[in-house]
UniProtKB/TrEMBL annotation:
Keyword Transcription found: no
Every Phosphodiester glycosidase domain range: 139-317
Transmembrane region(s): 12-33
Keywords carried by this UniProt record: Membrane, Transmembrane, Transmembrane helix
Presence of keyword Transmembrane: yes
Record protein name field: Exopolysaccharide biosynthesis protein
Family matches, as InterPro entries: NAGPA
Domain of life: Bacteria
Organism: Desulfosporosinus orientis (strain ATCC 19365 / DSM 765 / NCIMB 8382 / VKM B-1628 / Singapore I)
Length: 319
């Protein structure tokens, strides 16, 4: 009897392991080559905007990726995205709901660019903080997620900002040495700077606040270089500036088919054009995308676990 039971348990385990392995093999084939276009778009967008875009390229050609990404044409209608002001500008801040063909999000307009600061985790190299923590720690009234980060030990806790990080005119983290990196920065006059710089440029250009991320969407009034097929469709965070120095913070929800699919880089570019931006750049997005204001998250987070732990954020200080 005992022998029969042992054999049965062994067979059950073999059956379970076989089916698990079979599912692992079939799942990517089903997702990338299956009939469900929505699932395919979400998967491609999610993976392209992750640290392992090569996974998609292992199953799909560049032409097919472009076809999938462009099938969901979220580009702004000819009369621009639908906008609705949801708070007054008495405190120098205006918040608007935005809606494209397949995305929803928020735009925050800040008249005084010098109110924008970079917040850096208090435990740099140990763990990151949530955007709500950054806002509370700095005494700010609002905040969005900031630059990219790397994960040398696999902990995934947002402890290390990638590239150059600058606060109050000082480099607080640099893991690129003397090389150039794409940044989103503000100089002493509150002018937004996007594009490549080196550590030496921080002092030369009087940069006060900076994080590293890309691509530049608009640089000195000209369209940046980017490809939708490289970035896919995903939740987005971005920042721009008008000619009158007003800062434009953009949050696009995504990966929520009943609410918002997400945005392509061309969607962000069109949105910033609609707002009259002369400089604009993409920030870290995906599950990091968040806008925190007056004590609460005011966009719809994609991350099921809630706010993500990050190394940096852009915060909006009181007047």
């Amino acid at each position: 009897m005992g022998k029969i039971r042992k054999i049965s348990i062994k067979r059950i385990m073999v059956f379970f392991i076989f089916n698990l392995g079979f599912s692992v093999i079939l799942t990517p084939l089903f997702v990338f080559w299956g009939p469900f276009e929505g699932t395919k778009t979400l998967a491609v967008g999610s993976i392209l905007s992750s640290r392992h875009p090569q996974v998609v390229k292992a199953f799909l050609s560049d032409e097919k990726i472009s076809e999938i990404v462009n099938k969901y044409d979220n580009a702004a209608p000819s009369d621009g995205p639908i906008r609705h002001t949801v708070s007054d500008a008495s405190a120098g801040i205006t918040i608007e709901d935005i809606k494209g063909k397949a995305f929803k999000g928020k735009v925050m307009l800040i008249k005084d660019p010098k109110r924008i600061k970079v917040a850096v985790t208090k435990e740099l190299g140990v763990t990151g903080e949530r955007v709500s923590d950054f806002v509370k720690d700095t005494g700010a009234i609002a905040g969005i997620n900031g630059g990219g980060f790397y994960d040398p030990n696999g902990a995934g806790n947002g402890a290390y900002p990638d590239g150059l990080t600058v606060h109050n005119g000082e480099i607080v983290h640099n893991n690129i040495g003397s090389k150039s990196t794409e940044v989103v920065a503000l100089d002493k006059d509150g002018k937004l700077i996007v594009g490549p710089i080196t550590a030496d440029d921080v002092k030369k250009k009087n940069i006060q606040e900076a994080v590293s991320f890309w691509p530049a969407l608009i640089q000195d009034g000209k369209k940046g270089v980017f490809q939708d097929s490289f970035w896919g469709v995903a939740p987005r965070t971005a920042i721009g500036q008008k000619a009158d120095d007003t800062i434009i913070l953009v949050i696009i929800d995504g990966r929520q088919p009943t609410w918002s699919w997400g945005a392509k880089m061309s969607d962000l570019y069109n949105l910033f054009l609609d707002y009259g931006a002369v400089n604009a750049a993409n920030l870290d997005g995906g599950s990091s995308t968040e806008l925190f204001y007056k004590g609460k998250v005011i966009n719809k987070l994609w991350n099921w676990a809630g706010e993500r732990y990050l190394p940096t954020a852009f915060v909006v200080m009181p007047e």
